[in-house]
Write a structure and sequence with these properties.
With 403 residues, this protein is mostly beta strands. The radius of gyration is 24 Å and the shape is globular.
Length: 403
C-alpha cells in the first residue's frame, strides 16, 4: 500500500487519540492532577520556616513549601478562590503561597516584628498587624505592593509620642479592618473604601491583647490583659463608643500566672451564647450573646488558650497553656459539661475543624504530629507527620469573616 494511502487509513485513529488525549485526566494520586481548593489547607511547621499543603479529604500531605522565615507565631488568610494562602510570619515576612503548585508566589519583609493579619471583604487588600514598628500596613493581594501605612501613634501620659503594638486585627464588612492598640488602650477602624484610608479611634480598656469579630460582623470584642473584662465595639452603631462587657469576672479571685495568652479569634459562639477563655483562671466563661452578661463558668483542667465551637455548635473544644498543654477537653454546649479529655500529644498548639465539622485536626508540636479526630466518636481517625506543627488553617476560612 502506498504511504499516502496508509496515512489516510491511520488519520481517523490519530484524530481519535487526539480527542481522547484532550479529555483524559491524569491518574489518581498524580500531584499534577486537576483539583479544586475546597478541601485543602496549610499546616505551619514553626521550627523550620515551612508549611505543609494538605488535603483534608484524603488526610494527606501534598507538598512542603520552605523559605518562609520565622513562623513562631504564624497565621494564614486565603484569597477568595482559596488558591493562595497569605502567611504572616513573626519576623515581618508576608508570604503568598500557591497551594496548587506548592510554591511561593510572592514574598516581602514588611516590618521587624508582626503578629498576624487579615484580608479585606472584597479580597483586594492584605493588612498586617505589627509590633515593630507599631501599626498596620496594607498591601495589594495580587502583587503584595504596598497600599497604605497606618502608624499606631499615640501620646504617653508623660507627653512623649510613641508607637503602640497592634493586635487583634480582623476584617469587617464594608471593606474595613479593625484592630487594637495594646499600649494605647484603643480600638481603631480602618475603612478602605474611600479614596484615602479613613481611620476612626475609640478608647478601650486596659491593655487590649487580642480581638475577634462576631460571625455576623457586628461586634468587635477585645480581651483585656490589664483588667477583668472585655471591650466591645458595635460596628453597626460605632457612634455609641465602647461598651465594657463581663466586668470583674475574676473579682475576689486569685489569678494564676499566665503562661500563654488566650487566642480570641478562637472564641466560640454557640446556641446563643459566647464561650470565652478566662485570663489567669482555669475556666471557660459563658456569656449570653443577647446582652453579654455572664451566665456561667465551666471548670477546665488548665488555662484555656483556644475555645472553639464545632460548625454544628454542639461541641466546644478547648486547648490549654503550659504546663498542662498535652490535652484537649471537649464540652457539650447544651449541658456545659466536659464530656471527654483527649491526649493528642505534647504541646498542643492549634485545632481546626473541617468545613462541615465531621473532623477536627489537632497539632502537637513536641510530638511532631497532627492528629485527626472524628467529632462524632471523639476517636482519632488519622495522624500526619509534621515538623514542630503549630497553626492549622483550611481554605474554608476564605469565606468566613474575621479569620
Amino acid at each position: 500500500m502506498p504511504v499516502s494511502g496508509f496515512k489516510r487509513l491511520l488519520m481517523p485513529l490519530f484524530l481519535a487519540l487526539a480527542i481522547t488525549g484532550c479529555q483524559a485526566l491524569p491518574p489518581a494520586g498524580d500531584r499534577t492532577a486537576l483539583m479544586g481548593t475546597g478541601d485543602l489547607g496549610l499546616i505551619i511547621e514553626r521550627a523550620s520556616g515551612s508549611v505543609l499543603v494538605i488535603n483534608t479529604t484524603r488526610h494527606s500531605v501534598l507538598s512542603r513549601v520552605t523559605g518562609l522565615g520565622d513562623l513562631s507565631h504564624a497565621s494564614v488568610v486565603y484569597s477568595r478562590d482559596g488558591r493562595y494562602g497569605y502567611v504572616f510570619g513573626r519576623d515581618g515576612g508576608l508570604t503568598k503561597v500557591d497551594l496548587l503548585t506548592g510554591t511561593i508566589a510572592e514574598r516581602v519583609i514588611q516590618s521587624g516584628n508582626s503578629i498576624g493579619g487579615a484580608i479585606s471583604q472584597d479580597g483586594r487588600y492584605i493588612a498586617v498587624s505589627n509590633y515593630e514598628p507599631g501599626g498596620v500596613r496594607v498591601f495589594d493581594s495580587e502583587t503584595l505592593a504596598p497600599v497604605a501605612d497606618i502608624p499606631a501613634a499615640y501620646v504617653k501620659p508623660n507627653g512623649e509620642p510613641a508607637l503602640s503594638k497592634t493586635v487583634g486585627l480582623v476584617d469587617a464588612p464594608g471593606n474595613r479592618f479593625v484592630f487594637s492598640l495594646f499600649d494605647a488602650d484603643e480600638i481603631w477602624t480602618l475603612d478602605m473604601t474611600a479614596p484615602r484610608p479613613a481611620i476612626k479611634k475609640f478608647g478601650a480598656g486596659d491593655a487590649p491583647y487580642d480581638g475577634l469579630i462576631t460571625p455576623d460582623g457586628r461586634y468587635y470584642i477585645a480581651g483585656l490583659f490589664g483588667e477583668d473584662g472585655l471591650s466591645m465595639l458595635d460596628l453597626w452603631h460605632p457612634g455609641r463608643g465602647i461598651t465594657e462587657i463581663l466586668p470583674g469576672y475574676g473579682k475576689g479571685e486569685v489569678k494564676l500566672p499566665v503562661y500563654k495568652m488566650p487566642h480570641l479569634e478562637g472564641w466560640a459562639m454557640a446556641d446563643g451564647r459566647a464561650f470565652v477563655p478566662a485570663v489567669g483562671h482555669h475556666q471557660v466563661l459563658v456569656a449570653d450573646a443577647d446582652d453579654w452578661s455572664l451566665s456561667g463558668r465551666i471548670p477546665v483542667q488548665g488555662q484555656p488558650v483556644f475555645v472553639m465551637a464545632s460548625p454544628d455548635n454542639r461541641q466546644i473544644w478547648v486547648s490549654f497553656a503550659h504546663p498542662k498543654n498535652d490535652v484537649v477537653q471537649v464540652i457539650d454546649s447544651q449541658t456545659l459539661e466536659v464530656i471527654r479529655t483527649l491526649e493528642p500529644g505534647d504541646a498542643v498548639l492549634h485545632m481546626e475543624f473541617t468545613p462541615r465539622g465531621e473532623e477536627v485536626w489537632v497539632s502537637a508540636r513536641d510530638s511532631n504530629r497532627v492528629t485527626v479526630y472524628s467529632t462524632r466518636t471523639l476517636e482519632p481517625v488519622a495522624t500526619l507527620d509534621a515538623e514542630k506543627p503549630s497553626g492549622i488553617f483550611f481554605t474554608s476560612r476564605a469565606h468566613t469573616l474575621g479569620l
